[in-house]
Write a structure and sequence with these properties.
Order of helices and strands: HHHH
Low-confidence stretches: none
Distance between the termini: 42 Å
Number of helices: 4
Strand content: under 5%
Number of strands: 0
Structural class: mainly alpha
């Protein structure tokens, strides 16, 4: 991976992960300490998902800007992990 691409990735990923941690702690604190209707609790519980969208964007951008060999390696790794996750999920479902 190019040095500039790697620096940008770590910056984008780090900022997004920082926001995720802060929003996760805040949402858990609000849900456990404040009596709210269930619909509001669901919305507050889903707020930490917003930074994860930016994490996915950072990963996809870094992968897009990497060379063909790195893209192929990552594609194979993601494919393998998706297949293993599917097998584990189906196995757990059958149990």
């Amino acid at each position: 991976m190019n040095r500039d691409v790697q620096k940008r990735y770590f910056k984008e990923f780090g900022i997004s992960m920082g926001f995720y941690v802060v929003l996760l702690i805040a949402s858990i604190s609000v849900i456990t300490n404040v009596e709210l209707p269930k619909a509001v609790q669901v919305v507050i519980a889903l707020i930490p998902v917003i930074p994860t969208i930016f994490i996915v964007i950072a990963v996809m951008r870094a992968l897009r800007d990497s060379d063909e060999l790195q893209q192929r390696i990552q594609l194979q790794a993601v494919t393998f992990s998706a297949i293993v996750t599917g097998l584990i999920t189906f196995s757990y479902g059958f149990l």
